[in-house]
């Protein structure tokens, strides 16, 4: 299992469009991907949009992402890059 | 119209006869598109709060029930894909992304597992399981502290409703059949519900909630159907089949119109249809020829556009390019800014639409009441005079740079101009130009192709009018935004009903400002496009051309009626009338001249209802463009009814 820390930087947090992108991204890998709030108050299956939305990760939330499986390295990198880039949304 | 309704309530109490409920009643809301329609109410309910019953199943039925649930999800998914496709077509990819999220929710593993587990564990029917699981989910969402994220619960509701409908065997896949004269009435028209309607048959829309940028408004404008929103509690007073009038020129809705009322509206609807229809009937060739006045002066009519749904109308009505593209409509409510690439694609599409005449993209006109992403809640005390338009862009430089880059890149493959909104000082122009030049260099260094872009200034603030000659030497063209010009010049908040009587598009100061601006442009040999809503009304266009305007931009559907009138007039006569108006001291005097001259000299072009209405001595009637005896509350002034357009 691999893991990394990442902070949500886009203004609206993991809102509907961002969550959709995240789930579309994780869906392409076979590894299990999970997100957990750094304060351990909630964790989510990063392949389930309902679960991701329930994290209620607004801007500034610190998350711990973990991936486990044959393509765990790639999956983790893709997820962390996506979140760290603010989901490619112009406004940071 | 509060008075009318109070009267009805009293009357109802007195007689208690059910029949009296059918007495004519009027509501006033915000008109968000154009036109007028008479028809019958078709109530559309959003949530379809179906009754869901619990049934206990035998062990043997559970597998069947699970399969039934899966089949319903598959059906719902097919329907949702179709909805998404339709929405993409009508509203553009940026507004349809929400259906991606809905599709993912529909396929959500967790949702499926929870529901199937519940079916098996509790031995219940799928409907009950869907309801229980979704209620639990909603309860969790309700606890979320972040407003925006919490609101996602409405998406969950939309999705589970869809599964329930699919389970009930109702086929929501095809657009709902709609009677010919249907006027859709809803509390609020949700995008997924709207996308399922067959709009070919919808005559008009009336909704309780919403403003200019609501989904209802956007859909209605895109499809050129009359719509009035913000009607408060109208929905609950209606029943499907009730007779109704929706007047999107005044923002008025009449329920159970009397025979006399509905007849008078019908006549007006036909006249309106004739005014826009006549030229269309003359065939496409004629419409795409250059428009010349009787004395051979060419008048250019361009289109103002906001959404892809309006694009088709641009060529249909023979617009000469896009005179104003309000780029802030790229932003969906509450969402993040579109990326440079996304914007580039959008601008290129608009440029292609404009063809060889090109398209003028206005920088995001955000701020004030339209704060844009991430600025919700920062209320300014005086938003119209606050951080908006060019000021907002200059302060949020990253937003400006992204937009400028997108425009420059799109210009490599299409003809695009850029206009800077709400310029009040040359410094605004210089600062914006510097950023544009820097981004041009940056793109060059990155090896990106960029195109030539003309830079124009919106003239809509009095200070810009006064220094128009100076501005003209530093920009490539002017765009006159008449709506804001009237607001700022007369110090009248155009979205404030209380001062609507003071919002006078034909105020002599407005006319002088327009002339002064046009003269400054002519002296500097730069083009000047008049692109406020004034241009869309023939009587006002008459005055604008009389003041020297030769280039007008308006909603595409208004082009035929302006074209028809212009081709039957000559500029010298228009100038004479306009000059007479310039001598006036009051807006009333100007309107009187317009009414008198136009109705006597060109009665065939300007029927009484197309002219500014005489103001009643009671003082509560403003410069309505149409007036009949039952319509004394008409309050239409170009611009004022489109309360939040700029």
List keywords for this structure.
heterodimer; A: 92 residues; alpha+beta; Histidine-containing Protein, Chain: A; four-stranded antiparallel β-sheet; 3 helices; 24% strand; B: 646 residues; alpha/beta; Glucose Oxidase, domain 1; Enzyme I, Chain A, domain 2; TIM Barrel; 3 domains; nine-stranded mixed β-sheet; eight-stranded mixed β-sheet; 17 strands; 12% strand; globular; disordered N terminus; disordered C terminus
Percent in strands of chain A = 15-25%
**Ends of chain B: how far apart?**
27 Å
Provide the spatial order of strands within the biggest beta sheet of chain A: 1-4-2-3
Task: Give the largest interface pair and sizes.
Answer: A-B, 29 and 34 residues
CATH C-level class of the largest domain in chain B: Alpha Beta
Please give the oligomerization state of what you see. Answer: heterodimer
Ranges of chain B where pLDDT stays below 50 over 5 or more residues in a row are 1-20, 277-285, 617-646
Shape of chain A: globular
The tally of domains of chain B stands at 3
Average pLDDT score of chain B: 81
Total count of strands of chain B: 17
**What's the number of structural domains of chain A?**
1
Strand content of chain B: 5-15%
Biggest sheet character of chain A: 4 strands, antiparallel
Low-confidence stretches of chain A: none
Helix content of chain A: 25-40%
Radius of gyration of chain B: 27 Å
CATH topology of chain A: Histidine-containing Protein, Chain: A
């Amino acid at each position: 299992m691999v893991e990394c820390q990442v902070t949500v930087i886009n203004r609206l947090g993991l809102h509907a469009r961002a969550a959709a992108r995240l789930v579309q991204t994780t869906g392409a890998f076979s590894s299990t991907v999970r997100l957990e709030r750094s304060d351990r108050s909630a964790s989510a299956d990063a392949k389930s949009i309902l679960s991701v939305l329930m994290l209620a990760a607004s801007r500034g939330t610190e998350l711990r992402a973990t991936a486990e499986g044959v393509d765990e390295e790639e999956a983790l990198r893709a997820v962390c890059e996506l979140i760290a880039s603010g989901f490619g949304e112009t406004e940071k | 119209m509060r008075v009318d309704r109070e009267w009805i309530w009293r009357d109802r109490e007195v007689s208690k006869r059910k029949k009296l409920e059918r007495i004519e009643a009027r509501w006033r809301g915000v008109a968000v598109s154009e036109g007028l329609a008479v028809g019958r109410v078709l109530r559309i309910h959003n949530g379809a709060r179906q009754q869901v019953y619990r049934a206990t199943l035998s062990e043997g039925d559970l597998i069947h029930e699970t399969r039934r649930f899966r089949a319903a999800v598959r059906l719902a998914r097919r329907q949702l894909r179709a909805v998404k496709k339709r929405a993409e077509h009508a509203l553009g990819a940026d507004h349809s992304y929400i259906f991606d999220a809905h599709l993912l929710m529909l396929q959500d593993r967790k949702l499926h597992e929870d529901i199937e587990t519940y079916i098996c564990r509790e031995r219940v029917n799928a409907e009950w399981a869907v309801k229980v699981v979704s209620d639990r989910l909603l309860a969790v969402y309700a606890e979320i502290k972040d407003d925006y994220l919490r609101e996602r619960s409405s998406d969950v509701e939309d999705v589970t409703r869809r599964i329930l409908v699919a389970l009930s065997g109702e086929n929501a896949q095809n657009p709902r059949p709609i009677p010919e004269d249907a006027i859709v009435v809803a509390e609020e028209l949700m995008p997924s519900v709207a996308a399922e309607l067959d709009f070919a048959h919808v005559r008009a829309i009336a909704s309780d909630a919403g403003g200019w940028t609501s989904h209802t408004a956007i859909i209605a404008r895109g499809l050129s159907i009359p719509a009035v929103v913000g009607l408060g509690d109208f929905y609950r007073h209606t029943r499907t089949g009730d007779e109704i009038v929706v007047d999107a020129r005044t923002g008025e809705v009449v329920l159970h119109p009397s025979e006399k009322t509905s007849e008078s509206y019908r006549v007006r609807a036909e006249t309106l249809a004739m005014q826009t229809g006549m030229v269309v009937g003359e065939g496409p060739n004629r419409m795409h020829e250059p428009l010349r006045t009787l004395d051979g002066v060419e008048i250019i009519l361009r289109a103002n556009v906001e959404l892809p749904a309006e694009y088709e109308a641009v060529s249909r009505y023979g617009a000469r390019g896009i005179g104003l593209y309000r780029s802030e409509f790229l932003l969906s409510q509450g969402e993040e800014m579109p990326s440079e690439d996304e914007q580039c694609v959008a601008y290129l599409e608009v440029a292609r639409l404009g063809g060889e005449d090109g398209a003028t993209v206005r920088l995001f006109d955000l701020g004030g009441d339209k704060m844009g992403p991430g600025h919700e809640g920062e209320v300014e005390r005086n938003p119209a005079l606050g951080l908006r338009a060019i000021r907002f862009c200059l302060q949020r430089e990253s937003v400006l740079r992204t937009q400028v880059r997108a425009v420059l890149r799109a210009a490599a493959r299409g003809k695009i101009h850029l206009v800077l909104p709400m310029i009040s000082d040359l410094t605004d122009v210089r600062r914006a130009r510097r950023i544009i030049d820097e981004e041009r260099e940056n793109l060059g260094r990155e090896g990106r192709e960029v195109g030539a872009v003309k830079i124009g200034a919106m003239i809509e603030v009095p200070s810009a009018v006064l220094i128009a000659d100076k501005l003209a030497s530093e920009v490539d063209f002017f765009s006159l935004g008449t709506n804001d010009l009237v607001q700022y010049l007369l110090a009248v908040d155009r979205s404030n009903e209380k001062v609507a009587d003071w919002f006078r598009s034909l105020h002599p100061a407005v006319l002088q400002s327009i002339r002064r601006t046009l003269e400054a442009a002519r002296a500097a040999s730069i083009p000047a496009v008049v692109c406020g809503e004034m241009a869309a009304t023939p009587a006002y266009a008459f005055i604008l051309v009389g003041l020297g305007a030769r280039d007008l931009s308006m909603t595409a559907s208004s082009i035929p009626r302006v074209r028809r009138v212009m081709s039957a007039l000559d500029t010298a006569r228009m100038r004479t009338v306009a000059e007479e108006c310039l001598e006036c001291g009051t807006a009333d005097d100007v309107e009187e001249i317009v009414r008198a001259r136009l109705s006597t000299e060109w009665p065939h072009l300007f029927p009484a209802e197309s002219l500014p209405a005489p103001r009643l001595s009671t003082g509560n009637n403003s410069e309505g463009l149409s007036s009949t005896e039952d319509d004394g509350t008409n309050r239409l002034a170009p611009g004022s009814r489109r309360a939040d357009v700029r």
